[in-house]
Each structure stands twice: as C-alpha cells, then as structure tokens.
Amino acid sequence: KSVSVTVGKEEAVTVKDGSAPYTATAKDTKIATATVKDGKIIIKGVKAGSTSVTVTDKNKKTGTISVTVK
User: What is the pLDDT of residues 25-49, one digit of tens each?
Assistant: First the structure.
C-alpha cells in the first residue's frame, strides 16, 4: 500500500488484514509520523520526502505502507 500526503495534513489508512490492536511506526519521523486511531493508521506529513510506515497487529503480523510527502 502506498499513500501520498501533503505537509501538515493527515491521511487515514484502513488496515485490510490482521487483528486489532495495531501499532504503527514511521521509519523516518522527520518526514512523516504515524499513529493509530479507531483501527485506522493516521499518517501525518511533516516535511517533503519519502519514508515507510510499518504496521504490526496483535499477532505480530506486519505490513508496510510507502509514504510520499509533498
């Protein structure tokens, strides 16, 4: 999955597979941050660039979201 977000804005990503609760970790928090709210991953653009967000579910299954911040 990949998302594009504008600096200062947020994009909500719905997790298709896996079991809640989820955790989300941004690889480079200078580019984007990731939080979990209501079972969705909220990605916020910090500055222009690219990074990835790793999502982990309660069974330790992981997925990656590619993030481009404009």
Answer: 999 999 999 999 999 999 999 999 9
In tens, the pLDDT along 7-29 reads: 999 999 999 889 999 999 999 99
24 touches 48 (CB < 8 A): no
Residues with Cβ within 8 Å of 16's Cβ and at least 6 positions away in sequence, in order, are none
Closest among 28, 57, 29, 23 to 41, alpha carbons compared: 23
How far apart CA 1 and CA 5 sit, in angstroms, is 13
Q: Using an 8 Å Cβ cutoff, are 55 and 41 in contact?
A: yes
- Structure-block tokens of residue 5: 């977000």
